[in-house]
Amino acid sequence: MVPTRFREGRGAVTDASLIERKAQLPSVDRVMATDAARVAAETYGRTAAVASVRASLDEIRPAWLAGASVDVAPERIAAAATLRLEGAEQPSQRRVINLTGTVLHTNLGRALLAEEAIAAVTAAMRSPTALEFNIASGQRGERDDHVRGLLRELTGAEDAVVINNNAAAVLLTLNSLSEGRETIVSRGELIEIGGSFRLPSIMARAGAKLVEVGTTNRTHLSDYAEAAGPDTALMMKVHPSNYRIEGFTKEVSARSLSPLAREKGVPLVDDLGSGVLVDLSNHGLARERTVQEAVADGADLVTFSGDKLLGGPQAGLVVGRADLVKRLAKNHLKRALRLDKLRLAALEATLKLYRDPDRLAGRLPTLALLTRPPEALKAQAARLLPALARAVGADYETAVTDTRSQIGSGALPLETIPSGGFAIRALLGGSSALIALAAAFRALSVPVIGRIAEDRLVLDLRALDDEAVFVAALDEMTRARAAT
Ligand SMILES: *Cc1c(COP(=O)(O)O)cnc(C)c1O
């Protein structure tokens, strides 16, 4: 049977060779009768297989009718349709190998979860859970109760509320405490971070009136004092996550601002951004003020992310004074910004790891990756160098190199960590050959993402989470090159 769409149009086609070529193009049914198409139908379902065969025919038809030499054997078309189905089966959000040198890469999904958190998420996915149910009383419970106690214990704060992300935490805080009223912020802290988080815009959305004080480089306690008036609802400190103002500067610390806020009777909010719960200097990294310190310094509310240095799922955490937390929890926005059971399960499991700080670096992938010694990374690179050299071929020069990683996501923006990896240089073709190589790495089944620095493609091994997968990617590249 010849499907309607392959039948000759009403006299419109007069060219005999065109008619002949149309007739030579196999029908969908003929392609579906091949062994390959039968396998595809079994694997992906008949509907999807037929649609894919049709799409494959549609793709080659114009070139074929124009006289190009195209292989139109039914087996070939069935094979093309199968490839198309395989491609469509790949998740859009694919696994990648992060060799960018940025451990908490926002575009690559930030923190990798600990096994304990993964197990908790899997369990919560499979079964009903006591998400908002008090098992002892049989009454309705609060979803945030699963982490409130832990957050109190770990941060020293009176209470806590958790939502979608830290941007939501700032939005909810400002809307709950400063809607229609003023929030005082230093001009040096009016941040914009990636993904369109701009403090003035969030303030406007929250309905808070921004009162800027000081100058870009210098803000004094007296600036806050003079700006505070009857309409002041909040004073706010914001961590300059992705820049640093240096030179002739003056900043008022949260600790110095806190007594003034108290005197004026307004809460002080400290947006930490990354939010660490451990002293990073104990792990050989530069110190970053911890959440506990921010609480102890007198901030009434502290906001931070779940998926930055905390090493958990995407979440926004607010800890602080119980009366203020209650106002946030009661805001209707909280309902729109709340966490689902999966992320709450991951967050609870992640926070529990902090009860055992001695084993934290072994269990929390973010900390494990950040603390890998550069010598170990260089030794790993030396071991993998032959496989890399085979993969890229003789047109490129490969070498083990010292490099510098970043934490990423706004934590210690100017600090870099000594690291190790590969530097690849194109022997021919200059920067376009390097760009082509970077694209070839991205085209692998598990894409390898590096960074181009000057005339090198740098692959930093710090954030490599699975060596075997990287080796398989290199082997795939070697085979692909041998086949062309
Ligand atoms: C990262 C960051 C945010 C936004 O946090 P998300 O979890 O990405 O929403 C807000 N404030 C500061 C200071 C940050 O560093």
From TrEMBL:
N6-(pyridoxal phosphate)lysine sites (modified residues): 308
First and last residue of the signal peptide: none
Keyword Cytoplasm: yes
Metabolic or biological pathway, per its Swiss-Prot or TrEMBL entry: Aminoacyl-tRNA biosynthesis; selenocysteinyl-tRNA(Sec) biosynthesis; selenocysteinyl-tRNA(Sec) from L-seryl-tRNA(Sec) (bacterial route): step 1/1
Pfam families: Se-cys_synth_N (PF12390), SelA (PF03841)
Any one GO MF annotation of this record: L-seryl-tRNA(Sec) selenium transferase activity
Keywords from the named record: Cytoplasm, Protein biosynthesis, Pyridoxal phosphate, Selenium, Transferase
BP term (GO), one: selenocysteine incorporation
NCBIfam families in the cross-refs: selA
Protein name stated in the entry: L-seryl-tRNA(Sec) selenium transferase
